[in-house]
Amino acid sequence: MLNYVTTNPGKVREAVQYLGDAEVGQVDFDYTEIQAPELGPIAAHGAREAYRQFGEPVLVDDAGLFVDALGGFPGPYSSYVEDTVGVDRVWKLGEGEENRRAEFRCVLAYCDGEEFRASPDPIDRDDRVAAAAAGADENAEEEEDALPVKLFEGVVRGRLVAPRGEGGFGYDPIFEHDGKTMAEMSTEEKNAISHRGRALAKFGEWFAER
Length: 210
Description:
The protein is of the alpha/beta class. Helices cover 32% and strands 21% of the residues. It has a single domain (2-207), classed as Maf protein. It has a seven-stranded mixed beta sheet with strand order 2-1-3-4-5-6-7, sandwiched between helices. Helix 1 (9-18) crosses helix 7 (195-207). The chain is globular, with a radius of gyration of 17 Å.
């Protein structure tokens, strides 16, 4: 059983599409969300904590909107910014910028307590630089005892625009890809180019050989 740590059943349904015959279950676990300038360390920390809680293979994701002209803001703070500042104000911040390029990113972190090789996106005991970038494992007495975690990233590129569309959620109304905002897309259109879907596709290919 692969435990997807999320409160959103839609993520589990999306994962099933990419994972073939793998059995995927939803787990609601409030892991510690550390502060970090990148998504990887946050997801990796959550995966380690969730694995220690359940003792079974776990998948944790973290995602955000990264706006070039705002130095990547709101990035890993996207959820907090949406709740406190609001989507419209993020648009107002970028409205006057000539460069409105932006991207949605998602990082999936997988942990099953076992060793694995360092491709395609490494965080393991054989890659000290990547392991350090992913954040220290606070429960390990020594770095060598840190739980190995693998990261898989998905990205969809677009641009920041004035809010359009009635669908989707979060930043979807202000993110345009190929002429449509995410809020103007059907569920099928959105899933076809989803940053989470792209990360799941990478993970699914690797997991099939795991």
